[in-house]
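Lab notebook page, bench 4
Experiment: in silico fold of construct C2
Operator: M.H.
Input chain length: 744 residues
Purpose: comparison with the prior construct
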Amino acid sequence: MSKLKILAVLASLFLVTCQHLYSEEIKSSSIKNIYQLSDFGKSGTLQEAAKTLEKAVIEITAKGGGVLFVNSETCNDFIPESNVQKFLGQNSVTIIDIRGGKFRYVLPSLGYRIPSDPFGYASVYMDRQINQESINPQGTNSILRMSNRLVNGSVSYFQPVRGYEKESDPETMKVYLITVKGIAVGMEMTALMGQEKESYSERSSEFSVNVRIEKLGWDKAKNTHFAIVRKLDARTAWHPVTHLINKATVNAMTIYESTHCDVEEAGTIQIEKHAFGQGDNFGIGMRFCYMGNVMSTGGDENGNAYSVDTWQLLFSFIGKVESWDPDGGKLVYTPDSKRANTLGTSRPIINLNPEKWITQGKIAVESEYSETGEIDPACYVRGINTNWTPEIIGRAIAIDTPEEYAGNPPEGFWKAALKGRKIRRWWVITNYAKTASGEDRLWIERIRHLVYDKSVPTLINENNYRKELPYIIAPCAMTANVSEGVLKEHKMELKGDSIMPGKDDKRTIVLAPSPDSGTKFDFAPGDPIEQAVGSDPSHPNGYRVRHREAMPSCNSNSSSFYTINNGAYPIGAALAVHGGHDKMQIPGHSKFFNAIDVSATCDYGVHFRNTIKKAAVFMEKPEHKIAWKTPAGNLVLSSDEKGRLNIQSSGLKLNDKAVTGVSGVSATAFAAKNLRGINIQVKKGTTRQDVVFTEEELSPEYSLIVQPSWLCRSAVVTKRKDGFTVIFDSAPENDSTIDWLMVR
């Protein structure tokens, strides 16, 4: 058996690459349907390899399909792609690229039907059934296991340096270190040099060069560690070294998925688990064990057992028209166009030629603001001195004011990354009408579960509704197919410059018919264009759980989110809600509309079962309020800076219960220190009585009611901060008392 066939057996058993290697094609004496690209022709250049691959796929498919190896005889720059299966079940070819001793698997576009799932298809299918008397006791029996052991070479280091000195060797530099943690001789780092600057809202430096650590030592005079570093690029000159950095990322598996056409997805990873027996069951299980400090350097994001970053990308495709075929709907963009790898269907291509725009007058979005994006049935966009015609239907409208540009906060990632580019929110116009009074009105399309064609744009600044605003109406066409528009280099930079089209990229976008086709507003060579970003997104959920239970649980552990501290030291929070990085685009906007939103029926909103040492609810600032929405208005409980409880309501109802422990009553902003006196002794024959408060008032501005225990008339003649004086028109014949009540 040849080395190539032995390699094929090992590859098939290791990753079960395709169904052909599962089947009867594997014999004890030979392996059929195994080929190499060089068997079908030359592959030393890109053009030769592409042509030979096309020929190989046709011939191998005709023979029943198989596995095709790409070996070192093939041009290094050639990247084979999946062969297209025109229908499910069609014979196909799995490509295994073994150049350089590394495996790259290129799988058929559809794969084949999974027998146990009539709606399931796969290009790689692993199937195991355990049906035996016993399995390994206490062991983990996996269908696939990856072992990724990091022993040396990776590092997490991003630290400023204490200083630097030039060495006799001009290619080396002596750098004084703040810490030597993570650094070893032979390690490659990036030396940041020169003035610090900000790029994409992150710190960077004017210059940088990759270096290798040649020596580590201790400088007794400076009492610090140092490193001798050597430049790896002799063309870069030394500049003042400010930082050393190596934050290379290592993981066991990376899944990359990009969708440039409309798709209904069950998930990049989908687990369907059926548990019909008893025993602990986990959909996804993880044990995160650590012994180091976890956080090692600047920019670290702590240890996370589960982490999600959702980014609303704004740097959409932008370029120029090279050619336009209105009959075929094919637009070819110029080679200097940018961000082609963000092209996608169902987002319009906007013509940015100002000569084809309508900007006359102003508009007002006549609609009620909705925090949740509800559609106002009475809404419309009002034109002010606009003079529109029905020809605007099918074009796109954008509100052209900086407050309504996406990604335009005073500071933030997109403010820096967009480099001054305006990201307008474009909406396709679907209806137009002129009222009896001559007022222009239009409506746009929104998709909110269903398509609503009589809607209005949502606004970033809710205070802009019903205000006069500048606008642009531009020709556009909906994107139908981008398969020849995205680049062959399957890469997209989230930070940094765009990947540019190569000489073999077709740069072609297929557009749906437009009402402006064939008119002066149609696309033309030289027109600047962009693809609109989604202007009405539904923000992704960071984590979603949907229950469908049918009977009571046997314990209290049935939770959508369950956390338990089994350790011996407090955890910072069971749930933490933080906001950071970008400043808000609209002053007064919060990071969250709601930190916690409960819209389901429940017995208890928040249930505390065990000891709460300090406070069940603790609010650190006086402006933190508790409010109830009522038909008569909001009832609000709050505190002022002096620690006094403020109640804003239409009244106070105690349901026949008493108020106790009250030290004073005040109708002013100042609290009363005294409330009443009971059974104040008055000697017989007394016509003038001085009363002293238990605590001095802030001022003598208060009212009093005095009630003697004998029949007489009384009057308060003096009010002081420490008390008051009352006189009687007739003295008591015996020792008596008075009661008094005070209100400020």
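Observations: Helices lie at 3-15, 46-62, 413-417. Confidence is low (pLDDT under 50) at residues 1-30.
Next step: discuss at group meeting.
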